[in-house]
Amino acid sequence: MNYYHFEISKMKRIILPTFALTFLSQLIFTYFFVIVGKLEGNDGDDILTSYPAIISLASTITMCIISVYGAVAISRYIVKNYVGDNRNRVFLYPIKRSRLYLIKNIVFGCILGLSQFVALLLVNSIFFIGETIFPILNKPIKSYWLDFIFVAVVCVLLTLSIVLFSSFIGIYFASTMYTVITSIISIVIIANVSALSLINYQFAASIGALCVLLAMMPIIRYVSKRIDKSETI
Q1: Within a domain: residue 139?
Q2: Burial classification of residue 121, based on how many CB atoms lie within 10 Å of its CB (0-12 exposed, 13-18 middle, 19 or more buried)
């Protein structure tokens, strides 16, 4: 447990930035889409007057922002330790290399995911309560509370998948820059699909996002074995 505590003490610094970025992004874009939907509500396009669509679009943008931030953060806290001369120091720790790598990923994923999830739930709750008491769109919202939770779950799962996959690429090519580039490319591929699926198929999207994250597990094992076999420089 000492290694877990050590990694938590280092990575807890990303809690506040992750929470703040998620909170501000979700709040700003949620009400941006609400206002746009209110102004254009009479033009025949009711997408932005649908609560699931508004939350899905805002959450997708938030996912993109946190994915890029997460890629930068994981480059700093994990990837750089396995690139170049830095890995010599990490390999001297009295613990199996693959186990230490796994601990780092578990701690980072939990901190990033929980910080993002709490912020998303908080903003969605504020929006839900606000629309219940002082509605802007003048539509019933009470039946959508479960959709808000599913959207938050999908957003977090996809963010973690993008960030972890980006870190694998960064370690494989021994470059922190590859981590950020991969996250941006992944966002371009995933964002449109996730936004469309979240609008109408929240539960199915949740299952799909979970499967994507679980698909990262074999890659973690592969990278772990690769690290175990690595030689110091």
Answers
A1: yes
A2: middle
